[in-house]
Amino acid sequence: MIEPLRTRSALASLDLAVRTAPASEKAGVSLGQRRFLGKINLRGDAGDGPLARAVRDALGLELPAANRAEVGEATSLLRIAPDEWLAIGGSLAEARELSQSLSAALEGHHAAATDVSSGWAAIRLGGTESRTVLQKGCTLDLAPPHFEAGHCTATRLGNADVVLHQVEDDRDGSGALYDIYVPRSYAFSLWHWLHEASVEFGLAVSIG
Fold first, then answer.
1. Last residue within a domain, chosen from 117, 151, 176
2. Looking at the structure, do residues 126 and 191 belong to the same domain, yes or no?
3. How many domains is the chain partitioned into structurally?
4. Residue-level pLDDT, tens digit, the chain, 208 residues
């Protein structure tokens, strides 16, 4: 009997389950993987009304401005280029269905929606020293007001090209929270870079 194909996360070989530890007051950085998260690449003209309406109907979100993210209850939409967005949220199955419905809605228009869930990994970085860790390998100024909650950008981090989204500001002294989206082939390498960059501050690892 042939076993059904099982989906493995991009960092499955790290066996994060055995590395997971509860966050402590001494940990300045928390690092985790957001597994099996739906991701859809959307390409089109930002000024195209039918595209905006199709996205609004499907996601309940407006097309965000440059370097900004629109965040809904279940889905986030990140503007990562003048004519490109990344929709994040839901399960892998939900992403496939959503990309198909978006493609149908955009038929006949110069636009495309593609399910890229298996091609990207998502890493979540938090803690009081999260911004310090990022600045070790990113040339952008990530300090507010230049980069705050709701901001996103395609950039270089360490040894990989990534999409960086600041999810929360540092409002209570616990540090800013970031989601980092990286091509699957670079996920293992980027995780190790982030791990090494975080160790000096104390590190808590979670599966996510």
1. 117
2. yes
3. 2
4. 444 445 666 676 665 554 545 545 578 999 999 988 999 999 999 988 888 988 898 889 999 999 999 999 889 999 999 999 999 998 999 999 989 988 888 888 889 999 999 999 999 999 999 999 999 999 999 999 999 999 999 999 998 999 999 999 998 888 999 999 999 999 999 999 999 999 999 999 886 6
With CA atoms as reference, report the closest residue to 131 among 176, 82, 97, 161: 176
Question: Which amino acid appears at position 79 of this protein?
Answer: R
Q: Which two tokens stand for residue 11?
A: 């960092």
Q: Within this chain, do residues 132 and 94 fall inside the same structural domain, yes or no?
A: no
- Report the SS3 class of residue 178: strand
Give the Cβ contact number of residue 62 at 10 Å. 11
Under 8 Å between Cβ of 112 and 42? yes
Q: Which residue, among 124, 125, 167, 132, has the nearest Cα to 148 in the 3D structure?
A: 167
For residue 101, what is the enclosing H or E element?
helix 92-105
Backbone φ and ψ for 165, nearest 5 degrees, come out as -125, 120
Write the CA distances from 91 to 27, 34, 96, 139, integer angstroms. 30, 11, 9, 33
| Residue after which a domain boundary falls, among 117, 137, 163 | 117
Domain containing 111: what range?
A: 39-117
* Phi and psi torsions of 29, nearest 5°: -140, 140
Local structure of 83: helix, strand or coil = coil
pTM, two decimals, is 0.89
In terms of domains, do 28 and 45 share one?
A: no
